[in-house]
Amino acid sequence: MEILAIETSCDDTGIAILSAKGGPASGGDEFEVLANVVSSQTALGKKYGGVFPAMAKREHQKNLVPTLVKVLKKAEMLNSKVINETPDFKNILEREPELEKNLISLFKKYGKPDVDLIAVTNGPGLEPCLWVGVNFAKAISQFWNIPVVAVNHIESHILVNLLENPEIKFPAVALVVSGGHTQIILIKKIGKYKILGETRDDAAGECFDKCAKILGLGYPGGPIISKLAEIDPRGLSANRPRGSIKLPRPMFNTKDYDFSFSGLKTAVLYAWQKISAVKFHSSENLRQQKINMAAEVQQAIIDVLVKKTIKAAKDYKIKTLILGGGVTANKELRKQFKEALNTSSRVEVFVPTPNLSTDNALMTAITGFYHQKNKIPWEKLQAESNLRIGEKVIK
Ligand code: KG4
Ligand code: ZN
């Protein structure tokens, strides 16, 4: 079956077409990526120092139709078929006039593609952004008469791993670390999840982003901090006064699987204020301090993520560990997870290639594939910004 997927939960506009064979029951799933495009708003985020929902919504409105055309073209599904009547969206796009205009011209120019299912992220995420994607999916579903399935964004960060590794065995423990979420999840099987632990305040990605802002490094913080930390791996610099920057590892020793990252951000703020207050820093010295701080922030985050996730896998006697979400694009985090597992257990770890760690629509497509039975009439589709993947286990 061919699945057209739409992902707009944050600031990236993702559309993809995935060809999938097999099925949950057959045991032998095969996937072929027909097209995968992410229109990133990173330039805008850089300019304004973060993501602003209303602005991101406007960008999605602008980007969705051109991205869809690109994807259909790549998948060789762009069929010219001129119609004269004007499509009626039954007020679906009342709040997205620009998108409505673009979609009308698309529908007047091109015919229905050979697609069996639409998959769209309906939560969790930024409410205005989710609604644009959901309304876009509704309009397409209605006009081209294609059924639609709603996809949980957190689940899709996990299941994207099956694209490259369809043989992954369950039960498994997953760590999802993104700009909005940090959760350890127990997976009994696809569709059956329990939250073992999660952040009590900021998400790990948010911590990277906020610390980068404090250090004046720009947005998004994760990739920038990671690059800077690479220049000078911890402790190897000849110039570095060893142990000069030591940040806390919040909740490292607690018995639960929860996290807390807001204190780490505050610690960086105070440490950086202290460093910047010293007048005699040369610019080279200040740069070195920034590199050291970046490496230490990254290590503090990795330390707690690795410790708590492996503890969860061991406590629940799980042999499969699945990582997902934007922060798992981090090279050092990937390396340290693998090292920790090599030496300590027979747990196998799966992590997506970096461009599938961050938001994209292939993850939405594959999740839609596994939930194809849950397709609903487009009228029932709703965005749910606080959607949860499962109940939290209270110890
Ligand atoms: O999953 P994602 O693309 O979007 C959300 O669902 O939030 O994650 C975005 C987050 C941002 O906070 C970004 O700074 C972080 O992932 N990120 C990274 C790296 N690449 C992206 N964090 C650390 N290291 C990276 N290389
Ligand atoms: Zn995400």
Summarize the structure.
This protein is α/β, with parallel strands linked by helices and 395 residues long. It folds into two domains: 188 residues, 2-Layer Sandwich (Nucleotidyltransferase, domain 5); 187 residues, ATPase, nucleotide binding domain (Nucleotidyltransferase, domain 5, 2-Layer Sandwich), CATH 3.30.420.
What labels describe this entry?
single chain; 395 residues; alpha/beta; Nucleotidyltransferase, domain 5; 2 domains; six-stranded mixed beta sheet; 13 helices; 11 strands; globular; binds 5'-O-[(R)-(carboxyoxy)(hydroxy)phosphoryl]adenosine; binds zinc ion
Topology:
Blueprint: E1 2-7, E2 13-21, E3 30-39, H1 42-48, H2 53-74, H3 97-109, E4 117-123, H4 127-144, E5 148-152, H5 153-159, H6 161-164, E6 172-177, E7 182-189, E8 192-198, H7 204-214, H8 221-231, H9 262-277, H10 283-315, E9 320-324, H11 331-344, E10 348-350, H12 354-357, H13 362-370, E11 391-392
Parallel strand pairs: 1-4, 4-5, 6-9, 8-11, 9-10
Antiparallel strand pairs: 1-2, 2-3, 6-7, 7-8
This protein binds 5'-O-[(R)-(carboxyoxy)(hydroxy)phosphoryl]adenosine and zinc ion.
> What is Rg?
22 Å
Order of helices and strands: EEEHHHEHEHHEEEHHHHEHEHHE
CATH architecture of the largest domain: 2-Layer Sandwich
Strand order of the largest sheet: 10-9-6-7-8-11
Q: CATH class of the largest domain, anyone?
A: Alpha Beta
CATH topology of the largest domain: Nucleotidyltransferase, domain 5
Q: Which whole number gives the mean pLDDT?
A: 93
**What is the molecular shape?**
globular
* CATH H-level homologous superfamily name of the largest domain: ATPase, nucleotide binding domain
The DSSP helix count reads 13
- Main sheet attributes: strand count, strand direction, barrel closure: 6 strands, mixed
Distance, first to last CA: 42 Å
Strand coverage percent = 15-25%
Helix-and-strand structural type: alpha/beta
Per DSSP E runs of 2 or more residues, the count of β-strands stands at 11
